[in-house]
Amino acid sequence: MENFLQNDYSLEQLKRLAFFDELTGVYNRRYFKERFAEESQRAKRYSRSLSIMMIDIDLFKAINDTFGHLVGDEIIKKVAEVLKEAVRDTDIVFRYAGDEFIVLLPESSKEGAMGVGERMVTLAKESKLHSNGKTVTFGLSVGVANYLEDTNNIDEILHLADVALYNAKSAGRGRVSGKVIKNNAETDPTKSNVIGREKELKTITKIFEQVTKSNGQTVILKSEVGMGRTTFLFDFKESLKNRYDFTVMRGQSYKENIPVSYQPIREALNKFVEAYESLFFEVVEKLSIEQRAEIARLLPNLRNELLKSESVDISNSDEYKLYNSVYNLIKGLSEINNVIFVIEDIQWVDDTTLNLISYLVRNLNDKRVLICITGTNSDKINDFTIGLSKRNTHVSFINLLPLTKENTKKYLIRTFENQTIEPKLIERFYALTSGVPVFVKELASYFLTHPDKDLNSLISLDDVPLTIKEIVFNQLSTLEKDLVNILEIMAIIGKETSFEMISEVSEIEENYLFDHLESLIKLDLIVENVRGKEEYFSFKNLMIRDVIYQRSVRLKRKKYHFKIANVIEKLNYRSLEKYYEELVIHYYSAKVWDRTCEYALKAAKKSREIYSNEISLKFLEIAKETIEIRIEDEPNYSTLLIKLFDVVSEHEKVLNILGNLNAQKNDLDQMMEIAKKLDDRAKISDVYLKLSNYYLNKGELDKPGILASMGLKTKQELGDKKGEAIALRILGNICYRQRLEPSALKYYELSLQIAKELNDEKLISAAIGNIGNIHIENNDFEKSQKCYIDSYELNKKLNDKVGMIIVLQNLSMLELDLGNLEKALSLSNESLKLSRELGKLKAESDTLSLLAQIYLAIGDFANSLSYLEKALTISKEIGNFVNEFSQNLIFVSIFIAQEKYFEAEKILENFDGFAISNESQILIFNLKLSWIELFFEQKKYEQSLDIVQVLLQDRKFTINNSQQTILYYYLAKLHYFLEKKEEAKEASKKLLEKLSKTIRFNNIDELFFIHKLYQNSNDENERELALKYLAISNKIVNETAEKIYSKELKKLFFKKKINSDILREFEKKSKS
Q1: Checking DSSP bridges between strand 92-97 and strand 526-531, what pairing results, if any?
Q2: What is the DSSP string of 271-334?
């Protein structure tokens, strides 16, 4: 070491030192990865030959067992000398692992490489090693493959050399083989599971053929656990080689306490970058800077490379911009090559990830992309996949079932080709495994790796493991301690991991670690994946991983979790953001609460930034839990309480976004408790205002006023002017909902005054919009319109496009009320365009709903249903249940107008429970209005009347002028049809009182009913009243029609039942 430090090595020399094998002096495995990548690239670029040799020392385990490890090491050194003597100057020798060597032979034909191999075998036979008076001999087996002669796929050459080595050993060892059989089943009968899957393989291949014609497809591969989904996809991929060009992207989700948002998508993209970095960035370069910024949210470790110091405005970003960016990335890859995008084990993913998968399935249907989704059968996944297939015709299902008895027999015959398989044995084997492929394979592997065990012992069940767990335990009991430790480390890491990670955690010397990993690969417990220059390792089967994890001692697990977290920090300090979620899991399992909290808060923020609010909640809950544990143990009480308040406050904000009112209340109560313990008046006033909004949103109007007043008083005492303006606006909202318009206007104007003093244009715009709503209630439409336009201009100045959308929607509703239907359509279409430009899905859904209502008012049911279906699809995708509820009530109105009463009733029955469980008086009120309308049309007048009377009498429902008008209209109408004429007239007086204040386009039903009620009266004044309201309703219909310029829409408007009835009645009365 001293000599090493004294030498003045260059960086290149130091790098080369790291690439030499300490025992043999030849290059090591690490350098092979780098050099192989260089030579492969050169061979591919210039179409030059490249040969590769894989070399094994024959019966090396027996040498080690007989003469000891020291002699084994000497043999390995001797082999290295033999190889160096046999090769040309241009050839490069590497020690790959244990007793395995690789030789690269640039610009060598296969024949030339075979000649070098023969020289190696001969020299080995002639070599002897003398140790302790004994002579030790050894032999070599060599496999040779050549790029250009054996394959045109440079990525396949290493695998083919391995196949050739297998054939050299199978032929009797001590020889060279260039036989590169590509059928995996022929080279290793235990590694393929094509038996029993021929039909499914044919199906998915036909589906892929459609993809090559730019007909994007999705295959959902479902099965119970152990059916070999991963193996099936591997066989599928292998079957396509040499027939099609394609690129594979593969990501997996994992069984964890907290799913990582977009885990399989992130993993697929990260793996793709590692394997095909230049191709990835070639496609990324074509994306806009905004799209690259969204990809950087998913792959924070690549932020610098993706953004290149460019600034980007992400203030108007949302999840659908992210979805669209991922779509454009995959679309770009599909323009270069066919893409197979594998998403495994979706039973473990969160709803946000399912939304992204759904988006990709829906939009990649005309691209050269095959999406393969795998998962076990569960209610959640069945609902998701069935929903996908209903909405998308390019979605297919493949169900993997257990092997039949006949296929189990075929597997056994192929696997144990040199043994007699008795029918009784097949019966027993099938009875034990039930044809479950994983169990079939593992039980077969048990006998293959235990030559001392007689396969026929299965018949009597003598000393035979009967479950996967027993098989794994049996294997572990025979392994060296280091091998078991490696498996436990990998199980605790929980997913595919790098060689460097295993090395750091296990502290096993590099060469020995490679040997150990090779042993585990040969035992078929783990698999190796090479991407770029890096090697990664994972369990062959996740069931094995679960068994090993549960087997490890709890204290040992805790120690390893802590060590793994430390190593993640050490190895990835420059890109730690990528690993926040993993660090939370490991530090939490190690019970290191301060570090858990730190990373949980970072993971929560990261999840929020990629719009995964549900996952953000879970990380915030972990942070909250860790702070509460520390509060019990640590003296720094107030600091931790402040931190706890901030975490709970953040949790409440996310719940507010998700609309989870019930859970919100728990957070608000805890925040108030903490604020009072801290005696922090500012925090207490903030909670008062939040609580008042909470009760206002629930429709409980007796509580919010007191709370908001308390909040306002404290804000004023603290001199918090912005807080005061917000409190005044909340009080205005409360009064507005209580139908106290003058008081509401007063509060809004006071809020506006303070906002102007502060020059806070956002607050000014909000207050002006609120004042506009008051003017509508006061029937001052001109003032209302002016407020909305002023608010729009302010939002435009602030570049607050979301604010602009809200104002456009308000203006559109105003024009709808006034009967300016084409103007309402124009404003809504402008709002829709802006919503789509921003990718604001909720705003788009709201606008589509508004368009549906406008077309319903016109009488265009086809367009109304079309827009409503689009709106509802979005609401379901983004999980906005309140929107979904409201849109279904519009469906009810359309179905009633079309006299489809059964469909309407079915919707209302489905949503009864939802409205009640949300405890929202607004939702309950709107639902009851729909029931009133339906019962009336079904002529269930008594039931309809009961609901009307409840709504008018129950004080918990606070209803505005237009709602009161509707209720009095139905009250009068129901009494009329129940032949209670006096009661009908009494109710109609209240209706007329409401109509006297203003008559709008949407009052024509009420106006026409007044006509019908009084037209046959004995009282002349009442008959004149009937004629008056008929004339008014006729005028509204005609004036509204005049402002519809589309002939087709005008025709539909006149055809609408209420309008045609009014026109027909008016014409009839005019003639008489």
Answers
A1: unpaired
A2: HHHHH-HHHHHHHHTTS-HHHHHHHHHH-GGGHHHHHTT-----TT--HHHHHHHHHHHHHHHH
Contacting residues for 139 by C-beta, under 8 A, at least 6 apart: 57, 58, 59, 121, 124, 125, 173, 174
**What is the number of residues in the chain?**
1072
Instruction: State the Cα torsion 744-747-753-755 to the nearest 10°.
Output: -100
The DSSP H or E segment spanning 113 is helix 110-126
Using left for φ > 0, alpha for ψ between -120 and 50, and beta otherwise, residue 497 falls in beta
Amino acid code (one letter) for 775: H
Q: Which two tokens stand for residue 28?
A: 């090591």
Q: Residue type at 649?
A: S
Q: How many helices (H) and strands (E) does the chain have?
A: 52, 15
Between CA 637 and CA 631 the distance in angstroms is 6
Distance (Å, rounded) from C-alpha 914 to C-alpha 636?
44
What is the Cβ-side half-sphere exposure of residue 685, based on CA atoms within 13 angstroms? 23
C-alpha 884: how far from chain center: 21
CA–CA separation, 433 and 983 (whole Å)? 77
Name beta bridge partners: 528. Answer: 537
Sequence-separated (6 or more) residues with CB below 8 Å from residue 466 = 432
Query: Residue 477 and residue 940: Cα distance in Å, rounded?
Result: 76
CA distance 602 to 386: 36
User: Residues 6 or more apart from 166 whose CB is under 8 A from it?
Assistant: 143, 187, 188
CB-based burial of residue 1022 (10 Å sphere; 0-12 exposed, 13-18 middle, 19+ buried)? Answer: middle
SS3 100: strand
Contact 777, 958 (CB under 8 A): no
In contact, 429 and 456? CB cutoff 8 Å: no
> For residues 1072 and 1063, what is the distance between their CA atoms, to the nearest angstrom?
14
CA distances 715 to 509, 689, 724, 783, Å, are 65, 10, 5, 31
The C-alpha atoms of residue 497 and residue 579 are separated, in whole angstroms, by: 13
Q: What sign for the dihedral angle of Cα 132, 134, 135, 140?
A: negative
For residue 909 the two structure tokens come to 């029955």
**What average pLDDT values come out for the chain (1072 residues) when binned by 10 residues?**
42 60 86 85 85 92 82 91 93 89 93 94 90 84 91 80 86 86 44 73 93 93 86 88 87 79 92 88 92 90 84 65 92 95 90 88 92 85 76 84 88 77 80 82 74 62 62 78 93 91 91 86 84 82 82 86 96 91 95 96 91 89 95 81 96 83 89 95 96 83 90 96 96 86 94 95 92 87 92 90 91 92 94 82 89 93 92 77 85 92 90 64 84 93 93 76 86 91 89 79 86 88 90 92 90 91 90 74
At 713, list the tokens: 């008083």
Give me the phi and psi of 900, to 5 degrees please.
Answer: -100, 75
Handedness of CA 828, 834, 835, 836 (dihedral sign): positive
- The identity of residue 128, as a single letter, is K
d(CA 448, CA 857): 75
This prediction's pTM: 0.72
Helix, strand, or coil (residue 4): helix
CA distance 1024 to 1018: 11
CA angle, residues 431, 434, 437, in degrees to nearest 5 = 130
Q: What is the dihedral of CA 195, 199, 205, 206, to 10 degrees?
A: 170
DSSP 151: B
Token code pair at residue 970? 């139905």
CA–CA–CA angle 804, 810, 812 (5° rounding): 100
Helix, strand or coil, per DSSP, at residue 549:
helix
What is the signed CA dihedral for 892, 897, 899, 900, rounded to 10 degrees?
A: -30
**Which pairs from 300-306 meet CB under 8 Å and 24+ separation?**
300/575, 300/577, 300/578, 300/606, 301/270, 301/572, 301/575, 301/577, 301/578, 302/273, 305/281
